[in-house]
Specification:
Length: 471
C-alpha cells in the first residue's frame, strides 16, 4: 500500500462555523507541527510518549496555522491529534479544525501540499482503515451507506453494519464452513484415522444446513425484501390521458411539480421527484398518458414511459372512476401482470363516481392492491402512501433489517449459497468428499470477498471510489 501522508478537506464545500482538514500518515504529526504555532498554555506536553513534536494522542491544541517562511497567519485553529494505532486509519492522524471558508481551507491545504503532503483520493482514509485491519470490507462499505443514507431505516442499518454486525454474522457462517471442510479433508487425507461417525456425510450436511444454508438464505431474502431501504424505490405513475396522473404526483409529493390541465396529453416528458415516503426513499415518476395514435411528440413521451416501466419497482396504475376502463388499460395491465411487477391500482376521481355504484374493475384485476383516491380533494392519499410503503417493506421484520446486504454482497451470497447446496447434495448422495470440499472452498472464497479477507484490487478501487473525498 502507498504509505505517503495524505490530506483532504473532510467537511462539505461552502461556508460554516467549522471546516476540518484531515491528515493521515507517517509524517502527519511533523507536517502539522511545521505549520502550527501553538498558543501559550495550550495542551502542554508532559513529555511522555509524545515524540519530537510534543503532540500527545487524544489531545486538542489551540493555535494558528502559519506559513513558516513569511509568518503569515492563515487561520486560528484547534488541532485534534490521534496517534497510531488509535485512530480511524490506524496511522498518525491530525485533524485541523479551522473556520469553514472555502479560501481558508484551500489555503491551509495548499500549504500542506507545498510541504509534501499528497491530496487524498475518494475514500482513501477508509481504505487505509480497511487495509490496516481496523475494519473489514462490510464495515467500510457501510461507512459510505451511512453518509449517503436518506432515511432513518437506512441510517439504522448502516450504523449496525459499521459496528460490525454483518461481519460477525458472516464470520459464524465461515466458521461452520471451515469446521466441516477440515473434517472432510481429514477424511480424504487420512481415511483410516477418522471415525466414520465423526465425518458421517449426513451429520456434516446437517451442520451445513443449519449453520450455513439457513443464515445465507435469510440474508438473501432480507436483500430481496428490504434493499429499497438503502437503494430507494422507483415508482412510476401510468395510465390513460387525463386520468389525473400529474394531479396524483403533486398530491403525493405535496407540491405542484407537474403541470395539470383538463387537456388530454398535457404531460409529454417524464417528471421525477425524490422524497421519503413513510421512511423509505422513493423516486416517483409522472409520465405521458398512454393512448393509441399519439401525435409525434406524445409518441416520444410514451416511449419514455415504457422505459420507466421496465425499470420501476412499483407501478401506480391510474384509472378514472368517472369513465369505463379502456381497452388499452386492459392490455397494459395484462402485460405488467406477465412481468411480475408490483402494481397498485389507483382509482382516481373517486369524487366523480356514482355514490350508489362501486366502480367496476375488470375481473382479472382483483389480485392487485387497489386504492380509491381523489387527487383533486386529497382523499385516500395517506392510504396510498401506506400501500406504497407496504410494497417496499414486505416481509422484512425490523429484527432482520439490520442485515440487509448491498447488491455486490447479495451477488456473492447467491454464489455461496449455490456452492454450499451443491456440497450438501454431494454429501447426501455420497458422491464425492473431494468435490464437496471444492464446493465449500468456493463458498468460503465468496464470503472472503464480501468481508475483504481476499478481494481483487480492482474491486477495492470500485468500492472506495464510491466514497467521498475526506472519508
Ligand atoms: N374531479 C376530479 N378531477 C380530477 C381529479 N384528479 C385530476 N382531476 C382533473 O383531471 C384533469 C386532468 O388531470 P391531470 O392530472 O393533468 O391528468 P393526467 O393524467 O396527468 O393527464 P395527461 O398528462 O394529459 O395524461 C384536470 O382537470 C384535473 O383537475 C380528481 O380526483 N377528481
Ligand atoms: Mg399529466
Amino acid at each position: 500500500m502507498d504509505r505517503s501522508t495524505i490530506a483532504a478537506i473532510a467537511t462539505p464545500e461552502g461556508t460554516g462555523g467549522i471546516g476540518i482538514i484531515k491528515i493521515s500518515g507517517p509524517d502527519a504529526l511533523n507536517l502539522a507541527n511545521a505549520v502550527f504555532r501553538r498558543s501559550p498554555g495550550s495542551g502542554e506536553s508532559d513529555g511522555s510518549g509524545s515524540g519530537d513534536t510534543g503532540f500527545r494522542s487524544w489531545r486538542m491544541y489551540f493555535g494558528h496555522i502559519c506559513v513558516p517562511e513569511t509568518g503569515r497567519i492563515l487561520d486560528e485553529v484547534v488541532l485534534a491529534v490521534m496517534r497510531a494505532p488509535h485512530s480511524y486509519t490506524r496511522e498518525d492522524v491530525v485533524e485541523i479544525q479551522a473556520h469553514a471558508g472555502p479560501r481558508v481551507l484551500h489555503n491551509i491545504l495548499d500549504l500542506l501540499v507545498s510541504r509534501g503532503i499528497r491530496l487524498a483520493g475518494p475514500g482513501e482514509f477508509t481504505r487505509r482503515a480497511f487495509v490496516n485491519g481496523r475494519i473489514d470490507l462490510t464495515q467500510a462499505e457501510a461507512v459510505a451507506d451511512l453518509i449517503n443514507a436518506t432515511s432513518d431505516a437506512a441510517v439504522d442499518m448502516a450504523v449496525s453494519q459499521v459496528s460490525g454486525e454483518l461481519k460477525a454474522y458472516l464470520d459464524s457462517v465461515r466458521q461452520a464452513l471451515l469446521s466441516v471442510l477440515s473434517s472432510l479433508e481429514a477424511g480424504i487425507d487420512f481415511p483410516d484415522a477418522v471415525d466414520e461417525a465423526d465425518i458421517g456425510p449426513g451429520a456434516q450436511a446437517r451442520i451445513l444446513q443449519d449453520a450455513a444454508l439457513v443464515p445465507l438464505r435469510e440474508l438473501i431474502q432480507s436483500y430481496e425484501a428490504g434493499h429499497f431501504l438503502r437503494d430507494g424505490l422507483q415508482a412510476v405513475i401510468v395510465g390513460g390521458p387525463n386520468v389525473g396522473k400529474s394531479s396524483l404526483m403533486n398530491c403525493l409529493v405535496n407540491r405542484n411539480r407537474s403541470i395539470v390541465t383538463e387537456i388530454p396529453g398535457t404531460t409529454r416528458d417524464c417528471i421525477e421527484v425524490s422524497f421519503i415516503n413513510q421512511g423509505v426513499p422513493l423516486t416517483l415518476a409522472d409520465t405521458a398518458g398512454l393512448r393509441e395514435n399519439p401525435e409525434p411528440v406524445e409518441r416520444l413521451g410514451i416511449e419514455k414511459t415504457r422505459e420507466y416501466l421496465a425499470t420501476a419497482d412499483i407501478v401506480l396504475f391510474v384509472v378514472d372512476a368517472g369513465s369505463p376502463v379502456r381497452s388499452g388499460d386492459r392490455r397494459l395491465f395484462d402485460e405488467l401482470a406477465q412481468t411480475g411487477k408490483r402494481v397498485i391500482l389507483v382509482v382516481n376521481k373517486s369524487d366523480l363516481a356514482q355514490p350508489d355504484r362501486r366502480f367496476d374493475l375488470p375481473a382479472g384485476w382483483a389480485e392487485s392492491p387497489c386504492v380509491y383516491v381523489s387527487a383533486l380533494y386529497g382523499n385516500g392519499i395517506d392510504q396510498l402512501r401506506q400501500r406504497i410503503a407496504d410494497c417496499s417493506l414486505c416481509s422484512v421484520d425490523p429484527q432482520n433489517r439490520r442485515f440487509i446486504p448491498n447488491w455486490r454482497q447479495k451477488a456473492l451470497l447467491d454464489q455461496a449459497l449455490q456452492a454450499v447446496s451443491d456440497g450438501v447434495d454431494r454429501l447426501c448422495d455420497r458422491i464425492s468428499f473431494e468435490l464437496a470440499s471444492i464446493d465449500l472452498r468456493e463458498a468460503l472464497s465468496c464470503l472472503d470477498e464480501i468481508t475483504g479477507h481476499y478481494v481483487a484490487p480492482d474491486v477495492l478501487d470500485r468500492i472506495f471510489n464510491q466514497h467521498c473525498v475526506g472519508k
